[in-house]
From TrEMBL, chains A, B:
It comes from Christiangramia crocea. One of its GO terms (molecular function) is DNA binding. InterPro entries: Tscrpt_reg_Rrf2, WH-like_DNA-bd_sf, WH_DNA-bd_sf. It comes from the Bacteria. One of its GO terms (cellular component) is cytosol. This is Rrf2 family transcriptional regulator. It holds the Pfam family Rrf2. Keywords: DNA-binding.
Length: 138, 138
DNA sequence: CTATTACCCTATCGGTTTACTAGGTTTTAG
DNA sequence: CTAAAACCTAGTAAACCGATAGGGTAATAG
């Protein structure tokens, strides 16, 4: 299940991407338009700035803006930063790998191979969708 | 992320499916072989019995056995019972649909269409894999 | 210069879920 | 009878989630 944090983060990024100009967008504007608690949204946008997706401008007329072009931002990258692993099980995660303590051998694990297939299918979709795709999909 | 419960449940089903005869398998045997806490496993197998995947026999020599053939059991069905929805967001779930309270219109939601694609990709994999496939995949 | 705007930071908190444990009851084979 | 096994009810410690509180700090318009 996707957390609200991730969901809100994606929506906010899409909102900013839909703006024609590159002027900073205020959190208050996004929170009102997308029905997201402003304080909660602030913490999410802050995280997106620290991880290199957004830039920010302080003071009057400030806000957040995209650093890269929307088509350069893959959804895999966004989800990995906000949500963490895309895989359903740590032992098949590419970026957040962890060994299962109950499995002596991953190659003989019934769950392992199945979850690799699911992971690859998800990675395919999320890797070929960019912020541009989801921002313009209305 | 898949819960331990679901993971253990799948492993247990696979273990039972690998047995040639149809004699009941005890929880103690499965828990030792698969490194699962026995008490926790008990509750999982009980749930799998109540949802129609397993039969049980009480008393000495009792245990759990498959009711259907392994190739008749799709992994979608197992996961839906143990884990719940397969979709990453309730608003795209086929079996556990729920409306988002922040979305006025699903058709204009940036997250919605993306998550439908992910769901369909996952459903494809999990729907074409049966218990037979994952039990014999070593 | 000063008021305002809006980003930035820390801390906390109630609620839910997760993974598991404890302890007992019922049923059955031998 | 008795040992073994499923069955049932509760409880619980820890983690996580979504949000809120309350400010601090930097930049800018006028």
């Amino acid at each position: 299940m996707l957390s609200k944090k991730t969901k809100y983060g994606i929506k906010a990024l899409a909102y900013i991407a839909r703006k024609k100009d590159r002027k900073p967008v205020q959190t208050s504007e996004i929170s009102e338009s997308e029905n997201i608690s402003q304080k909660f949204l602030e913490s999410i946008l802050l995280e997106l700035r620290k991880s290199g997706f957004l830039g920010s401008k302080k003071g009057k007329g400030g806000g957040y803006y995209l650093i890269k072009e929307p088509e350069e931002i893959k959804m895999t990258a966004v989800i990995r930063v906000l949500e963490g692993p895309i895989a359903m099980v740590p032992c098949v995660s590419l970026n957040y790998y962890e060994k299962c303590d109950d499995c002596p051998d991953e190659n003989t694990c019934a769950v392992h191979k199945l979850m690799i297939q699911v992971r690859d299918a998800s990675l395919n979709i999320l890797g070929e969708n960019t912020l541009r795709d989801i921002a313009t999909s209305q």
